[in-house]
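Ticket #4471: structure export looks truncated?
Reporter: QA, pipeline team
Priority: medium

Steps to reproduce: submit the single chain below to the structure queue and open the exported record.
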Amino acid sequence: MPRKSWLKNRKEGFGMLEEMVLKSAANAFGLDSSLLTHVGGYINDVYQYPAQNGGPSRIIRLTKQSWRNQKEVLAELHFMKYLFDNGVSVPDILPSKDGNLVESVAGGYHVAMFTKAPGRIPVEEDWNEKMVGNWGRIVGQMHLLTQSYVPLQGVKRRDWKQEPWMDMMRHLPHEEPIVRQKADELLNWLETLPRDSKNYGLVHCDLYDQNFFVTKDGRITAFDFDDCCYHWFAFDVAIILYLFIARFNRQGKKSESLDDHVAWFFDAFLKGYQEVNIFDNGWLKAMPHLLRYRRLLGYNLWHQRYDWKTVDGELKTKWLRMKAEIEADEPVTNYPFG
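Actual output as written to the record:
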C-alpha cells in the first residue's frame, strides 16, 4: 500500500487485531495471547502484557510492514537499546524467544516487546517545573549520546529528507502556491544551517507529552521512537515547544499570556537540558523559523491524511486558520528567543 494511502487509513488497525495475528505475535515472544490487553496506538497497535512469574509488565507493539520495513524497526530498537544501556530513561527492549529484537509475523506485522514505562501520561497536576526540567534533561542526554552513536552496519534510520511524510513539495497541492512558496523558502533556509555531530544526529522527533510517562516525583520515561530520524537537535526541541504551544491554545486559557507560558516552559526546559548538554545561543535565533517549519509539516500531514474537498466542521476551520497563518508568515509565538 502506498504510504499516502496508509496514512489516510492508519486507523484501520486501531482496535483488536485478528486472533491469528495476536497469537503469532505472542508466540514469537513466549507469551499467552489471551493475556494481551489493547491499550491504544495511532500508527502502531499497542498491547500490554501483565507482570508474571517475576517478569515485568510488558508492552507489545505491532507495526504494519507497509509503514516500516524490518530494518527500519530494528534500527529504531537498536538506538533505544543504546540509550537504555547508557542510562537514559527509556523502556528496555526485550528479545523474542529466538533472541531477536524484532520479529515479523502473520498478517504483515513487525513485532517488538518493551518493558512498560513507570508512571502515566502527564495530567494537569504533573505540569510543573520539575517535570519540564526532567523533560529537557532527557532530551539533552539523548542529544549528547547520539553524537557517539554507531548504528548497526547496513541498518540505519533515515535522514529527514528521506522520510516521505516530511516531503512537503511532494504533498502540498500546486493549487496552494503561497503555501508551497513558504515551504520552499524554509527548506532552502534549512540547507544553510550548520550540520555536524554537535548539532545534528539521530533524534526522537516526536517527544511531546503523549510520548512519555511521568511518575509522581516528576521522573520521565520516553517512548515511541517510531518517528526517529536524522535531524537537527534544535528541531527536536522545536517540535516539543510547538506541541506545547498547541496544547496551550487548545486549553483556551484567556487569563494567561501564551508568550508568558512559553517563557515559563522554555526556561525550565532549557535549564534541564543544559545540566547535561550545551544548547548554543545561536540555535535560539533559529527557533522561530523551526517553529514555522513544524507548523508547515503539520499542514503537510493533514494533506496526506484527509481530502481537503470533503473535510468540514472544526477541522475545516482549523485548516483554514493554519493556511492563513502560513501564508501571512505569522510567528507561532512572539516570545523573544535569544
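Status: closed, not a bug. The export was complete when the record was re-opened. Leaving a note from the reviewer for reference: The CA atoms of residues 288 and 331 lie 7 Å apart.
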